[in-house]
Amino acid sequence: MQLFVNPAGELSIYRQIMRQITEAIASRRLQPGDKLPSHRDLAEQLVIAPLTVKKAYDELEASGYIETQRGRGTFVSSSVPPPPSGDQQLRDAARNLLSIALLSGGGMPEAVQALHQVEQEMRNARSERGA
To answer: Most exposed of 29, 43, 56, 62 (fewest Cβ within 10 Å)?
Structure first.
């Protein structure tokens, strides 16, 4: 799995890492039991501080997405939790998406089109993975 961070991005670097890992789990590019890179290896790959990776991993572990096995490494959890308060989280994401669409000169049709494109990408990633 290849991760990318943008230091000038809207989200902090550790949140970018968290988002990419949760998206990879949701699209099944990462399966339960898959091993993640160590803090140090991922930090070297992304050219960031190892503590930034540790913070992302700690939050993902607290949320139940990953688990650390002492001496073995960090793995995708065998039982990924459902997202908290799905309705509110979905409304917040919709508000954010529509705001971005409006600010870029578009509107609802462009937001819906973007959702369809992302859904197709996630479905393709799942089928490529054999799920």
So the answer is: 62
Same domain, 72 and 90: no
**One digit per residue, pLDDT tens: the chain, 131 residues?**
789 999 988 889 999 999 999 989 988 899 999 999 999 999 999 999 999 999 999 999 999 999 999 999 999 999 877 655 667 778 878 888 888 888 889 889 998 999 999 888 888 877 776 65
CATH number, domain at 52? 1.10.10.10
Q: What is the 3-state secondary structure (H, E, C) of the chain?
A: CCCCCCCCCCCCHHHHHHHHHHHHHHCCCCCCCCEECCHHHHHHHHCCCHHHHHHHHHHHHHCCCEEEECCCEEEECCCCCCCCCHHHHHHHHHHHHHHHHHHCCCCHHHHHHHHHHHHHHHHHHHHHHCC
Asked whether residue 20 falls in the same domain as residue 63, the answer is yes
Q: Do residue 21 and residue 55 come from a single domain?
A: yes
- Against a cut of 0.70, is the pTM above it? no
